[in-house]
């Protein structure tokens, strides 16, 4: 197995997708000559040409709108939104065109568009560069929403997303771009959660940047915690979580986005609907606070930490 960073894994996954299908194109702000602000597309324009990897104006609505037209003409556009907070000028296009075109055309038109969004905090950035807007898109029917947490998933999931005939919003945990890991020989199902650490006392569910934090909490704690990488936010693989909760009786859901109205709330509702009598304690959530993302000097106080996860674990075990 090859050991690479997540950034390199994404680059190699995009390269493989471009190689495999001449209809795959990559577009976004600075993705061409510069190779992206995080260098995820580094070298791709040089190797595949300006017709397939090209820079766009600083206009997210234009990027997504152009991708819609290209998808109608049979292409598979991969759009990079440079930072999480920059997606909102393109929100109208994503929600009203990308998500609805297949249904609007009674199935005649597909939208095989992949929208890559580096998301989350932990890099000491300024406003609009550290947000977690995944719940907006998970709430929108017609969109698939996924997030990788390690290099192997990054490599395979970006290819699976590009091959999908449905639009996929692909959230990349930017603070994990430089984390290293081995690439597996085979992909895992795109919309299936994975148990990354078996345990018996409590289940901790995370996705994207906080999977590593959850694993760190499990290793630091004296308790036998089961950690699940959700991987897919929409659709949610509730079954894998239910199976775990039926064994452990306790659930803590962790994400960087604000706790209110988030993915954790949806997962908590589904678990209590389907596994109420297996629960030994209420489902607890650990997440960001109900405030705008703070200035960089305060982000470590805002982001979920190992200590905050362990505090929730201790509280659920006290019941």
Structure in words:
- The chain is α/β, with parallel strands linked by helices.
- The protein has helices spanning 6-20, 44-48, 60-72, 91-98, 101-104, 134-138, 151-163, 210-220, 238-248, 263-275, 299-302, 306-317; strands spanning 3-5, 24-28, 53-55, 76-80, 114-119, 144-147, 168-173, 180-182, 194-197, 202-206, 225-229, 232-234, 251-258, 284-288.
- Strands 3-2-4-5-7-6-12 form a seven-stranded mixed beta sheet, sandwiched between helices.
- α8 (210-220) crosses α12 (306-317).
- It is globular.
- The model has no long low-confidence stretch (mean pLDDT 97).
Number of strands: 14
Mean pLDDT across residues: 97
N→C terminal distance: 44 Å
Rounded to an integer, what's the Rg over CA atoms? Answer: 19 Å
Coarse morphology:
globular
Instruction: Quickly name the level 1 CATH class of the largest domain.
Output: Alpha Beta
Beta-strand content bin: 15-25%
Number of domains: 2
Oligomeric state as shown: single chain
| CATH fold annotation of the largest domain | Rossmann fold
User: Approximately how much helix is present in the residues?
Assistant: 25-40%
Q: Find the CATH superfamily of the largest domain.
A: Thiamin diphosphate (ThDP)-binding fold, Pyr/PP domains
- pLDDT < 50 stretches: none
The helix tally amounts to 12
For the biggest β-sheet, the strand order reads: 3-2-4-5-7-6-12
Helix/strand class: alpha/beta
Biggest β-sheet: count, sense, barrel?
Answer: 7 strands, mixed
CATH architecture type of the largest domain? 3-Layer(aba) Sandwich
Q: Order of helices and strands, N to C?
A: EHEHEHEHHEHEHEEEEHEEHEHEHH
